[in-house]
Amino acid sequence: MIISKLISGIKPINIIGDVNKEIVGVNIDSRKIEANHLFIAVKGTQVDGHRYIETAIEKGAVAVLCEDLPEEKAAHVTYIQVQDTTQAAGVVATVFYGEPSKKVQLVGVTGTNGKTTIATLLYNLFRKLGYKCGLLSTVCNYIEDEAVPADHTTPDPIELNYLLSRMVEAGCEYVFMECSSHAIAQKRIAGLHFAGGIFTNLTRDHLDYHKTFENYRDAKKAFFDSLPKTSFAITNADDKNGMYMVQNTKATVKTYSTRSLADFKARIIECHFEGMYLEIDGREVGVRFIGKFNVSNLLAVYGASVMLKQQPEDILLALSTLHSVSGRLEPIYSPEGFTCIVDYAHTPDALENVLLAIHDVLNGKGKVITVCGAGGNRDKGKRPLMAQEAIKQSDKVILTSDNPRFEDPQDILNDMKEGLNNAQLKKTLTIVDRKEAIRTACSLAQKGDVVLVAGKGHEDYQEINGVKHHFNDKEVLYEIFQND
Ligand SMILES: CC(=O)N[C@H]1[C@@H](OP(=O)(O)OP(=O)(O)OC[C@H]2O[C@@H](n3ccc(=O)[nH]c3=O)[C@H](O)[C@@H]2O)O[C@H](CO)[C@@H](O)[C@@H]1O[C@H](C)C(=O)N[C@@H](C)C(=O)N[C@H](CCC(=O)O)C(=O)O
Ligand SMILES: Nc1ncnc2c1ncn2[C@@H]1O[C@H](COP(=O)(O)OP(=O)(O)OP(=O)(O)O)[C@@H](O)[C@H]1O
Ligand SMILES: N[C@H](CCC[C@H](N)C(=O)O)C(=O)O
Ligand SMILES: [Mg+2]
């Protein structure tokens, strides 16, 4: 694609050099630059991408998009200066890959918890309804059946538009994606055309990055502010910030609620560990999910499907056949008759809700033993709150390592214990080794009890000092049961 076409969606302040050159690739990372590429210099949180302009040119870049022009310029390179390269990166990537988001119905899901669940269920549901679909999520990306491993909840703008273009090539009509607050703040989704957006909920997370809850909230809101008039915005009326999210959007607003009047409503008729019987918009349906929060997730899925012009009867029929998403409230039954639940709860709110869901089913008839930790190099303030939520609804808590990343695991656990009083500490064990912690929880459990293993869900690694060691909570549980 020639440079003048490539930059047709942005407003350069200055252009130096030939704009009729052919560009065969674009990237924000100098390490991925090859011959005849455009390098986009982005000022990041760790380094300033402008430092890599020279390296990128040595690797073959023939055009550079930047905010600050370098003093020494190469004669064969075209320099394009813009105000904000973060924003421009998304727009240029979209143009380079043929504006793929305009060729599919793209629905974005944002909020603290529930994004993976909702996006994955929509992908599974629309495939059951007979459509070709794509999915961009924390667990894995999918182009129809083809799995493309995910490093991030939302990929960088280049990878994102590349994957979307592959989905268009594969004939996908619908694409469901998670929009993390990092991705919205870093404009990874700039230039995308959304058919709809969904808001799940907002509670504490990622304050290491956003600094204040207001910044975090407004990062999520920015997604709805940017939705086009043709799109829909579905919001959770039960969440304190549900209406705030959509107050400035141009999209058609619809609400969902399990408590009050809303466009999409539901209530629980019955619930077991195997699933729930629900009434959604006046129709009854059996689903294989538990927990009130999953009623909200299913309502969001139902609402989005209605807005995407599917028939309520077809949606509910497909909904009744869907299974829980990997590592989200996934039950594993022990030979001794207790139930283990593997779940990705890694925020105070998620822990509270998962434990509520477990108690709803247990109905006072068994003990709850919770194994949990907190991630290293992430929001420290959530650590004591997570310990508090765990102890509030558990008979015993075993604090253990999650992904310590570059922190000492014992320091993370000490931060968690800061949230507990002496009586609560007496109900708590600290076992740094996660496998040992899970084993101990299982040895304490009896028939009818529940062992909640929280925090890592689908993850198949434990990240320690920058190295990902193979580790999977479900595998560990099966191994324990086999050796019993
Ligand atoms: C804090 C954060 O979110 N950082 C993300 C951000 O990086 P950054 O802009 O800070 O990059 P940087 O390292 O300062 O580098 C600046 C620029 O120089 C470039 N560079 C750097 C080195 C080099 O040799 N050459 C070069 O060109 C980089 O490619 C970049 O363009 O943009 C990068 C590209 O999109 C991301 O890979 C990176 O994710 C880091 C690794 C990360 O761990 N992010 C997590 C926190 C994250 O994004 N999580 C959310 C979800 C959380 C949730 O689901 O709850 C996610 O969407 O996954
Ligand atoms: N609607 C919800 N409300 C509160 N908690 C939820 C909700 N849905 C899921 N959870 C809890 O949050 C955990 C994470 O769910 P999920 O992976 O769907 O969220 P996510 O928003 O994609 O998270 P991430 O930001 O890490 O990608 C689940 O394992 C469950 O404990
Ligand atoms: N996307 C989230 C996932 C957290 C998962 C948990 N296992 C942890 O490592 O903290 C994050 O990067 O903060
Ligand atoms: Mg997710």
Automatic annotation (TrEMBL):
Keywords linked to the UniProt accession: ATP-binding, Cell cycle, Cell division, Cell shape, Cell wall biogenesis/degradation, Cytoplasm, Ligase, Magnesium, Nucleotide-binding, Peptidoglycan synthesis
Residues carrying N6-carboxylysine: K220
Residues annotated for meso-2,6-diaminopimelate binding in this entry: R378, D402, N403, P404, R405, G455, E459
Residue ranges constituting the Mur ligase C-terminal domain according to the UniProt record: 327-457
Entry's EC annotation: 6.3.2.13
First-tier enzyme category under EC: ligase
InterPro entries on file: Mur_ligase_C, Mur_ligase_cen, Mur_ligase_N, UDP-N-AcMur-Glu-dNH2Pim_ligase
Placement of sequence motif Meso-diaminopimelate recognition motif: 402-405
Cofactor: Mg(2+)
Binding residue positions for ATP: G111, T112, N113, G114, K115, T116, T117
One Gene Ontology term of the molecular function aspect: UDP-N-acetylmuramoylalanyl-D-glutamate-2,6-diaminopimelate ligase activity
Domain (Mur ligase central) ranges: 109-304
Functional summary from the UniProt entry: Catalyzes the addition of meso-diaminopimelic acid to the nucleotide precursor UDP-N-acetylmuramoyl-L-alanyl-D-glutamate (UMAG) in the biosynthesis of bacterial cell-wall peptidoglycan.
NCBIfam families reported for this sequence: murE, PRK00139.1-4
UniProt record similarity statement: Belongs to the MurCDEF family. MurE subfamily.
Protein name, UniProt field: UDP-N-acetylmuramoyl-L-alanyl-D-glutamate--2,6-diaminopimelate ligase
Species per Swiss-Prot/TrEMBL record: Hoylesella nanceiensis
